[in-house]
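Sanity check record (used in CI):
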Amino acid sequence: MASEEQLKTIEGAKVLMVGAGGIGCELLKTLALSGFRDIHIIDMDTIEVSNLNRQFLFRQSHVGQSKAKVAREAILKFRPNINITPYHANVKDPMFNMEFFKEFNVVLNGLDNLDARRHVNRLCLAAEVPLVESGTTGFLGQVTVHVKGKTECYECQPKPTPKTYPVCTITSTPSKNQGKLVVRFGRMGMSTQDFVHCIVWAKDLLFAKLFGDRTRENDLYVRSNDADGSVKHSEDIFEQSPDEDLEQYGRKIYDNIFGHSIEATLSNEETWRNRNKPKPIYIRDILPHKIAKPNGSLEENCAIDDTNVSAMASLGLKNPQDVWSLEESTRIFMEALRLFTEKRKKV
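Expected output for SUMO-activating enzyme subunit 2:
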């Protein structure tokens, strides 16, 4: 039990919490229940369906909303007399400078990438504010305390570059600074790490959703639209209906992933206040007509042994080092889907 003096210190403390995800939800709950009365939260992300299995302050109805703001609302339902200030923003924004950090008695990190952690660590050192750093690896958690002049800082020991990327950190919201997924097909500038995350997203989520075991859990959530533009959360766009041929099926997937889902993300204007907006892409704008003759006729292409041919070779693209145009990338997507699906039917 805390002494009366300790309780007064806790009640009078001003706390900054960076990150309102898996760790952040637990931190905020613990802070509120421990007696802290002035808590500030910084998080640039919005809530996704894949967050709901572990970030217990959020519900299905919160998808698309600010994590920091929804977390505040959830805590105030059972601790209405405390002050919680949310910032739907990037901790690297100029407003969160050294003077801002000096306002706090302690900073708690609940981040999922090294770049942001290093940034917060340097600000805490400059402002001479204690930092409580926390993270997870699989089922294991780590907590370290960093106080200038008393302990080593977060960066005093080199941190290894991650060789694997937990699926829970791969999201559909573009975010170069957070090291998460940037919208595919090059609609925004990307760093090397962004490319790695794109590959992981495609391999572990999209590919598994298209061709993997449908009974296995998959965090990929794609907002789908019907003909009149209304969102249908219950529809599984990855299910090919009996009246769809392969091209119709491919166009549906393409439009929902790169079009409707991006438009739904753009509807939250607050997310893009300090970030470049992605541009939705619809296949009708790239390939307006049915793919009858990508390189000769489809029937002629199918005469070759499709079990060993690649989509690139099938379309006559010979140099794998070439930078594909958007149209070429789209044709590759459609042809790869056709080849793989037809090969699977033969097995």
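The chain has two domains: 4-146, 167-346. If this sentence no longer matches the regenerated tokens, the check is flagged for review.
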